[in-house]
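Item description
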Amino acid sequence: QMESLERDHRVHIKVHEQRVQNLDYEQKESRRQVNLDGESAISREREDHGDRVLEMSHEKQDIKRDLREQQLKNEDDVKMMRQGVARGLHKLRETFEANHQQ
């Protein structure tokens, strides 16, 4: 009977050791999978970030171009207004001088 108990005990120990090995393997596989998933996620985020930076750079260039076009238009508008004011002032002077020469 003692031999039977020892044999059963050795079997239980072997079963326990096998469970520990299986758990160890599962843990290593889980860790490996988590690392792979993390690296993949980081890679996707870097790629998305690069795409967003590129898109924002294009938007910034478009905004700068639009701003420059608006500035040029405003400069033209100011130039036209100044010319109009100058013509009006010139006519006013001519009228003033014509009225005061008589």
Q: What stands out?
A: The mean pLDDT is 96. Residues 53 and 59 are 10 Å apart (CA to CA).
